[in-house]
Amino acid sequence: MPHPFQTDDPRLEPIAEKIMAHERLDFDDALALYGASDILAVGWLANHVRERMHADRTYFNVNRHINPTNVCV
């Protein structure tokens, strides 16, 4: 059964195939993702991996820097 991934960027097709096959991405794949013009497709791929690894669990990070002097530098 084919996956529902669609993109206008031909560089993302082989990366999508690797992701669907649970293969590890290499440095050239990372460069292709970084330079991809279809940001929605990159987000779809990232979310697919996140859902596969973590299911419905979501994690948030709250980072606070308290400055007691009330002077920001």
Provide structural commentary.
This protein is an all-alpha fold and 73 residues long. The protein has a domain at 12-54. It is 45% helix and 0% strand. It is built from three helices and no strands. The protein has helices at residues 12-20, 27-34, 39-54. The longest helix has 16 residues, at 39-54. The radius of gyration is 18 Å and the shape is elongated. The mean pLDDT is 88.
Distance between the termini: 56 Å
Tell me the series of helices and strands, N- to C-terminal: HHH
Percent range for helical residues? Answer: 40-55%
Instruction: Quickly give the structural class.
Output: mainly alpha
Oligomeric state: single chain
Report the principal-axis shape.
Answer: elongated
- Name the beta content range: under 5%
What is the count of helical runs?
3
Q: How much is the average pLDDT?
A: 88
For the largest beta-sheet, the strand count, sense and barrel status come to: none
| SS elements, strand count | 0
Low-confidence stretches: none
> How large, in whole angstroms, is the Cα Rg?
18 Å
Brief rundown of the structure:
It is built from three helices and no strands. The protein has helices at residues 12-20, 27-34, 39-54.
Essential attributes:
mainly alpha; 73 residues; 3 helices
SSE blueprint:
Elements (H helix, E strand, L loop, with lengths): L11 H9 L6 H8 L4 H16 L19
